[in-house]
Amino acid sequence: MMHIDPRDTDVNSTRSSVDNVAYVVEQKDMPSSHRSPPRQCNDMLFLIAFLAVAGMTVAFAVQFGPKFIQETQLRDNPDTTGFKKVLNYAAMCGGASIGISLAWIVTMMFLGEFVIWASLFFMIGACVFAGIFMTKKLHEREAKVYWWPAPVFGLLALLITLYAVCIRKRVKFAAVHLKIAGNAIFRLPMTLIVALVMVVVQLAWAITWFLGVYGLFDHLEYIKPNHHCADPYSAAKCKLHVKYGPIVGLSVPMLAVFFWGAMVVKNIVAVTVAGTVAAWKVNVSTPLITLGAWGRAMTLSLGSICFGSLVVAILEAIQTVLNSISMVAARSGNCVAACIVGCLACCLGCIKNMVETFNRYAY
Known about the structure:
Elements: H1 17-29, H2 44-72, H3 83-140, H4 149-166, H5 168-187, H6 189-219, E1 223-225, E2 240-242, H7 244-282, H8 289-298, H9 302-331, H10 335-362
Antiparallel strand pairs: 1-2
Helix pairs in contact: 2-6, 2-9, 3-4, 3-5, 3-6, 6-7, 7-8, 7-9, 9-10
Protein name: Choline transporter-like protein
GO molecular function: transmembrane transporter activity
Pfam family, one: Choline_transpo
């Protein structure tokens, strides 16, 4: 489905650097019909569509965002209020996510095996606890079939235990690979810098999307705060007039746009790291490994990244809407509708996970 630049895969990582040079020379001497396809930007249509959609979102944010911020800001108040407060919280969450990500990488490097085993034991313990707790609660309510949680969760705990026994030798293998991958990343600090830059881009995209969407809704008067919302003396009378029909109708395409941009940024980082580690494994002395992989991800491979990200973004947007509908139905007491919509969202989530797996191998 994807066409990623072959530069990161046109050499065999199991060969030495000398053998790889010979391989490249051999490739050059081959007839043109037997050579690898030339490097080019594939899936240009999806790249153009993504740039158009991203540009439209930025235009909405610039044109309608400031007005919406002003309408939610309290007059004559030196403190940050309204939508500006939301932006401050978003910036703080972005900074916290960076720190947590770095801490998690270090943890997986040095405690990878412990984390894997701890996760397995936690799942087994959670199943045992759930079986005992639910059986006790049903017995206290004098239910006729109060005992059913015990065998169900007991069987689940047994299956997880058998799974842990079967993979016990692979846990060490996985932990070693996690350590090698972590060492590769920290030996190439430019990879972390690229990741931090893309986190900032991700945060900027989220803020731009929120400003654009809510600014557009405010401009179309789908969401309209009254004049009390900007008055510090009558803020208690603030009311938000919402037209739910048009908002729900625009939710799927606008959510698809948001998830598309987020997935593109995420997959650019994935392609960059994959290309960097592959080149580092073949030849450590290659200059500008990370910048080269990042440049290819941002140019030659960007069309394919946009293509794969679009499929996942559409599924993610539909799943989000279905989950919201299921939540509303559950709160209104319509358990049947909540169950049906929840099952649809679950099936859609399984399809989305499969597509993400395909994309991961393609990238």
